């Protein structure tokens, strides 16, 4: 019975998702993921998203739980209790799961990104690694900087359902002697392993000596979600966990091949979106793109919003330093903002039993506007903030805005990013560009 309970918990935790992804095109022509590699010079690629036919019932508390793990934040007791309540198990069983990991022992082009569940909580993209190509479905994440994959070094029980990378089957793979990687999560679990250099192709664009981190141990929250075979980190290399020498991200290595040193996210609400690498598509946004400086010292795409507005209420000037993270589903902001927002929804409450703010599904949530500069703003429609029902009767819905107080950092996840065309500009002076678009 305990094994069955752990399997259920593992599956539901994995379905909460961590990330988002990218897809394929050169110019305006959509191409297949197996298109021949592109010449090395000013390229433009578009990676379109597609919905995943697999369906997993989500729960808001699980999504919040995953965010705490990702950012290494201690999980509050009430959130653990909310997960336990949802699954009908004890808190001890949740903690037992949290401390269990998969042990390490042997036993311009195109791609497609598919959301893991109906709440846009994670996206996947086919990525080709090695020679001949081994294609894995990876999760693109601007909130991390490691490209790690399920590999043949994992025990067979942990590989079940996943496509794995086997460096011994690639003629271009080279082991980085003495190098290892280790990502620790807030629940005490970790993912870690060895490091290889190999050819990595995304949308026809090739990086010949990309660090590919092969998993020998994987947190159980990843092993059960067979849609995801690893992650592609798109934050800055200073966050990379490879030791003794950190490695560059795929974007940092590919940047010299692109027309412009940038990628742009056009995420969608319950629909297919795209990522553009090396160019900005004017058809995907309305009006001007407003750029703001990025503080790269933490290693994230960190910037400062100028304030917020709830519905038609007056705009409140307030510096909100945050991370733009495609790998996080919800939006995490200070408690004062949550009180202002949910105070306008009749019946909304901060529920410990559900693990966050909830409100009646029959109630229309107000729009939420955040400032990019003193002149430019982005408005998130209220429907984006309704994450979906948390009860079988469909009467209570989980809010897309949740507290950042325990996580320790404000995070503008997919709830915010889907409301704009967002440009992640690298190079010597990194910046973020925000533009309104048709929603």
Automatic annotation (TrEMBL):
UniProt keyword Amino-acid biosynthesis present: no
Entry annotation: catalytic residues: 141, 325
Highest taxon listed in the record's lineage: Eukaryota
Matches recorded under Pfam families: Asp
Entry's Gene Ontology molecular function annotations: aspartic-type endopeptidase activity
Signal peptide extent: 1-21
UniProt cross-references to SUPFAM superfamilies, sorted A to Z: Acid proteases
Protein name: Endothiapepsin
The species this protein was found in: Neurospora crassa (strain ATCC 24698 / 74-OR23-1A / CBS 708.71 / DSM 1257 / FGSC 987)
